[in-house]
Amino acid sequence: MMSKVIAVSGKGGTGKSILCALLIKKLISIDKYKILAIDADPTRGLSRTLGIEEVTRTLEEVRNKIINVGATGDDEIKYQLIHTLPNRILEVLNQQDGFSIIAMGQPKTTGCFCPANTVLRNAIKFLLDKFDIIIIDCEAGLEQINRKVIHNVDTLLIITDPSKRGFQTACSLKEMGLKYTKAKNIGLIVNRVKTKSKILIKNAKSLDIDIYGFIPEDNNISEFDMLGKSLLNLPDETSSLKAMDSILKHLLGDL
Fold first, then answer.
1. Which of 10, 29, 88, 102 could disulfide-link 159, Cβ–Cβ 3.0 to 4.6 Å?
2. What is the pLDDT of residue 82?
3. pLDDT of residue 248
4. 252 exposed, middle or buried (CB, 10 Å; 0-12, 13-18, 19+)?
5. Calpha distance 243→216 (Å, rounded)
6. Average pLDDT, the chain
7. Count of structural domains, the chain
8. Which long-range contacts (CB under 8 A, 24 or more apart) does 88-96 make?
9. Domain of 205: which CATH number?
10. Three-class secondary structure assignment of the chain
11. In Å, what is the CA distance from 163 to each residue of 182, 190, 227?
C-alpha cells in the first residue's frame, strides 16, 4: 500500500512545524500507523519542535556524496552509487519513539536549493511504499511547490494565521498547489485564532477551499516553545490538540 502523503505549507511564522508536530502526536496516540515525518525546511524547525536538537544524518549528506563521486569517481563507482542510493536514503532515516524522521539538512554552499530539493523529491518517491502516513513540513513560501518537490501528495494542508498577509500567501499556495501538485485534497487551517470573527470566517471562505479547522491561540504551546520543550509532551487536554480531532477526520477519512 502506498503512503498517504500530507504536505504542510504556509507563510513563514504561521506555525507549519507546530501543526506537523500536533499531527504526529495525535497519530502516535492512535497507535495504528507507521509514520514518517519529513523536515523539508533547511532550518530544521520540525526537528526542534519535536525535541530533536541534533539530526546527525540528513539528505544533504546523500547529495554531497553524489556530488563528490560525480566529480572524482570512475564509472564503476558511479554505477554502484546509483544502485545503492535507496539504501543511503534509508541510512539517513532517524528512528524515534512512534515515528521516523528524515531531514533535508542545510547545504554548506550558498545559492539555489534546487539540487537539495531534487534529492528530497526522489527520496519521497522511494519512501512512498514504506510508511502508512508521510507528513512533510515544507519550506516556507512557494519554492517547493513551484519546483514540484511535493508533486506526489494526497493532501496539501495550507496553514495561515489570521493576518491578511497570511491569507494572501495561502491564496497563492492554493493556486500553485492546483497547478503543480497531484493533491486530491487541499485544505485550509487557520492557526492562533483568538476569536472566530466574521472577518476571519469571510477571509477563510474567500479562498474557496475546504476549511479543515481552526487552531486556537494556545498558552501551552507558547510556553513549550519558549522553554524548548518537545510538543510531543503537550498535555492531552491542550486546546490545540483538541482542535486536531476535526482536522484528523478530514485527513484520515480514507484510511
1. 10
2. 64
3. 96
4. middle
5. 8
6. 86
7. 1
8. 88/62, 89/59, 89/62, 89/123, 89/126, 89/127, 91/57, 92/57, 92/58, 92/59, 92/61, 92/62, 93/36, 93/57, 94/52, 94/55, 94/56, 94/57, 96/50, 96/52
9. 3.40.50.300
10. CCCEEEEEEECCCCCHHHHHHHHHHHHHHHCCCCEEEEECCCCCHHHHHCCCCCCCCCHHHHHHHHHHHHHHCCHHHHHHHHHHHHHHHHHCCEEECCEEEEECCCCCCCCCCHHHHHHHHHHHHHHCCCCCEEEEECCCCCHHHHCCCCCCCCEEEEEECCCHHHHHHHHHHHHHHHHHCCCCEEEEEEEEECCCCHHHHHHHHHCCCEEEEEEECCHHHHHHHHHCCCHHHCCCCCHHHHHHHHHHHHHCCCC
11. 28, 10, 26
The count of residues in the chain is 255
pLDDT band, residue 145 (cuts 50/70/90) = low
Task: Read off the C-alpha cell for 134.
Answer: 508521510
Range of 236's domain? 4-251
